[in-house]
């Protein structure tokens, strides 16, 4: 691998061109997205939107809506962003869908990947140098220059925390805002701030939306003011708005897509608790209807939780790592996470679920009204049963899991049964299904392992039948001693997937592996990254994976591959406070792999260990993923 040289331009940035063999790769350096330097004397940029025309009323409203642009700290980090490249002479087995398969990954393939990555890393190190690894702090990731020393907790409170009782100045400092309002401008929900502050912003939002519709005849989608991104989702009679000063949320081929996805999740939550017909009916009767009248305090808490999880991977009340799972699920397009158990045990549990449809009581089928059945542990799927002609999409299951988690926190005691209506927007936005939840523990010699039984029916009067089915499932699991003991051991061992113990790989501190066809993922234990599960570690992983996922990747096009899906590779490196973190991504048409290492690592070692993890995931695919579930 040869370098063509490194030159500094007049702004101090680095112009780099990497020349891998046998063809060249042009690489453009990007400064850390949340850490680029902004001069205090730089005039405020003119607000821009995705529409070609602006109106005076809209421009004035936008300028008032956008928070002030704060001076950002200059970063020492370098994020390589490379263009597509044709790689000739790479002998990829064309009979395989994956370049990562255990049987088909050749030495030539691995060497080719190493050659590409070596060019990216060596060029980066030539500019950034080396550093002694030490623990990073999330406030060192250059969100904002706080003009003076500020500790981690104060930074969190000032810029991140979900707060209702704040003044206007503190309100504007928040990195993220969500607003939900009616088309008539009536407030429904705000992530931060009370009515005294929020009402003014709701009026501004209404002015912006109506100005575009009246003067341009189009719906506004997004506006950029300096470093602030404002995205609108018009679901008349409801409007949802996200305001973000987090620049990696505006990365990628479609800069609005991340915030649109987040707003869609919030909208789906409203549909899930109210349904589309009920919302439309209330606003048809009165356009200035206050939708808050039919929302409960728990609904507002759930919206707060969703906003925190979607943005930061954190709960409103700090200390729950399950929220990071939800964040990664959203980043990976509503990917679901299942728990690792043996195929034999999963098959036995699947058969128990299927037998519920055949269970009789006085010649009547108890499970006649059962539509969907799930077994879960730690908010991860163990088993999923569905009708042959119907399915629940991942977006609906994600909302369902979030609802169950919220109910557990608020009012669900250990052995209580839970029964609630839920509209599944992608299944049927016009009606409700009814969800039964039962939790039970299995014991051995260690910590109890909790399992949740989720049974979904279309009959609102089927509570006692679902309760009877849950008792049957528990009996079938508990009464068979061998099944109970084996299930306990596997749940205890799989709840915290360890890179060092389970896969025996060094250097890599955290990884995510996504299987594309069923849209499911597995990831390692969060605590291995910084040896803890603190907010500091979670926010770092959120930052690294968001940038890595949205970064421009090298697209490897193979000679003679026809219209086959290109393989992609992405590499990023962050320096800060004496610490070095490396991020790496490999993908093909079958899977995606992401990992982070909190130290310098040779390209050969990084590729070798990444492929080892990928091969391990492929080897145990039947244990790691539930696939499409079982049907009746």
Largest sheet: 8 strands, mixed
User: Which consecutive residue ranges, at least 5 long each, have pLDDT under 50?
Assistant: 1-44, 68-105, 126-134, 558-563
Shape: globular
Oligomer: single chain
* Broad structural category: alpha+beta
* β-sheet strand percentage: 15-25%
What is the first-to-last residue Cα distance?
56 Å
- Work out the radius of gyration: 26 Å
Describe the structure.
This protein has 632 residues and is of the alpha+beta class. Helices cover 36% and strands 23% of the residues. The chain is built from 18 helices and 26 strands. Strands 6-22-23-24-25-20-21-12 form an eight-stranded mixed β-sheet, sandwiched between helices. A six-stranded antiparallel β-sheet has the order 4-9-10-11-7-8, with helices on both faces. Strand 18 and strand 19 (449-457) form a beta hairpin. Helix 1 (56-65) runs antiparallel to helix 5. The radius of gyration is 26 Å and the shape is globular. It starts with a strand and ends with a strand. Mean pLDDT is 79; it is low at 1-44, 68-105, 126-134 and 558-563.
Summarize the structure.
The chain is 36% helix and 23% strand.
Topology diagram in text:
Layout: E1 2-8, E2 14-19, E3 25-31, E4 48-49, H1 56-65, E5 78-82, E6 85-86, H2 107-128, H3 152-160, H4 168-173, E7 176-182, E8 187-190, H5 195-215, E9 222-225, E10 228-235, E11 238-244, H6 257-274, H7 276-285, H8 297-312, H9 322-331, E12 336-337, H10 343-355, E13 360-361, E14 364-365, E15 370-377, E16 380-386, H11 394-410, E17 418-422, E18 433-442, E19 449-457, H12 463-479, H13 481-494, H14 499-503, E20 508-515, E21 520-523, H15 527-530, H16 535-550, E22 554-557, E23 567-576, E24 579-587, E25 591-597, H17 603-619, H18 621-624, E26 630-631
Parallel strand pairs: 6-22, 12-21, 16-26
Antiparallel strand pairs: 1-2, 2-3, 3-5, 4-9, 7-8, 7-11, 9-10, 10-11, 13-14, 15-16, 15-19, 17-18, 18-19, 20-21, 20-25, 22-23, 23-24, 24-25
Helix pairs in contact: 1-5, 2-17, 6-8, 8-9, 8-11, 9-16
């Amino acid at each position: 691998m040869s370098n063509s040289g490194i030159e500094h331009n007049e702004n101090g940035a680095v112009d780099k061109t990497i020349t891998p063999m046998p063809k060249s790769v042009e690489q453009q350096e990007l400064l850390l997205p949340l850490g680029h330097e902004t001069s205090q004397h730089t005039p405020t940029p003119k607000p821009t939107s995705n529409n070609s025309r602006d109106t005076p009323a809209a421009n004035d409203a936008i300028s008032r809506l956008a928070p002030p642009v704060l001076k950002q700290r200059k970063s020492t980090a370098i994020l390589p962003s490379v263009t597509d490249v044709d790689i000739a002479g790479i002998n990829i087995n064309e009979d395989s869908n994956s370049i990562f398969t255990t049987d088909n990954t050749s030495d030539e393939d691995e060497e080719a990947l190493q050659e590409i990555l070596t060019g990216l890393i060596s060029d980066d190190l030539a500019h950034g140098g080396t550093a002694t690894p030490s623990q990073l702090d999330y406030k060192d990731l250059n969100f904002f220059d706080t003009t003076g020393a500020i500790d981690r907790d104060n930074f969190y409170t000032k810029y991140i925390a979900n707060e209702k009782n704040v003044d206007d100045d503190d309100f504007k400092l928040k990195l993220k805002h969500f607003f939900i309002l009616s088309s008539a401008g009536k407030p429904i929900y705000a992530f931060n701030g009370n009515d005294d502050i929020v009402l003014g912003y709701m009026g501004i939002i209404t002015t912006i939306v109506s100005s575009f519709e009246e003067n341009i005849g189009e719906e506004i989608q997004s506006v950029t003011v300096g470093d602030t991104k404002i995205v609108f989702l018009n679901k008349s009679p409801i409007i949802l708005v996200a305001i973000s000063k987090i620049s990696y949320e505006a990365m990628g081929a479609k800069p609005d897509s991340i915030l649109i996805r987040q707003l869609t999740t919030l909208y789906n939550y409203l549909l899930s608790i109210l349904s589309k017909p009920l919302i439309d009916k209330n606003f048809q009767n009165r356009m200035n209807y206050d939708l808050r009248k039919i929302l409960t305090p728990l609904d507002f808490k759930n919206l707060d939780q969703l906003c925190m999880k979607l943005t930061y991977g954190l709960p409103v009340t700090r200390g729950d790592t399950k929220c990071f799972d939800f964040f990664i699920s959203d980043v990976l397009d509503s990917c679901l996470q299942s728990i690792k158990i043996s195929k034999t045990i999963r098959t036995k549990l699947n058969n128990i679920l299927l037998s519920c449809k055949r269970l009789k009581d006085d010649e009547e089928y108890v499970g006649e009204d059962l539509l969907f059945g799930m077994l879960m542990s730690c908010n991860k799927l163990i088993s999923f049963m569905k009708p042959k002609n119907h399915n629940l999409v991942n977006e609906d299951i994600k909302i369902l899991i979030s609802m169950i988690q919220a109910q557990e926190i608020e009012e669900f005691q250990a052995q209580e049964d839970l029964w609630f209506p839920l509209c599944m927007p992608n299944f049927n936005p016009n009606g409700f299904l009814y969800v039964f939840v039962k939790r039970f523990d299995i014991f051995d010699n260690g910590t109890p392992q909790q399992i949740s039984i989720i049974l979904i029916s279309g009959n609102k009067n089927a509570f006692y039948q679902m309760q009877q089915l849950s008792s049957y499932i528990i009996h079938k699991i508990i009464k068979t001693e061998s099944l109970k003991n084996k299930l306990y051991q596997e749940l205890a061992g799989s709840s915290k997937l360890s890179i060092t113990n389970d896969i025996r790989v060094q250097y890599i501190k955290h990884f995510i592996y996504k299987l594309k066809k069923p849209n499911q993922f597995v990831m390692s234990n969060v605590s291995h990254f910084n040896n803890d599960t603190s907010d500091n570690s979670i926010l770092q992983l959120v930052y690294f994976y968001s940038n890595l996922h949205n970064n421009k990747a090298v697209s490897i096009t193979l000679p003679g591959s026809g219209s086959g899906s290109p393989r992609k590779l992405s590499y990023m490196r962050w320096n800060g406070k004496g610490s070095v973190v490396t991020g790496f991504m490999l993908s093909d048409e079958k899977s995606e792999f992401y990992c982070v290492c909190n130290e310098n690592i040779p390209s050969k070692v990084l590729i070798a260990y990444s492929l080892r993890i990928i091969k391990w995931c492929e080897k145990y695919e039947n244990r790691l993923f539930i696939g499409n579930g079982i049907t009746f």
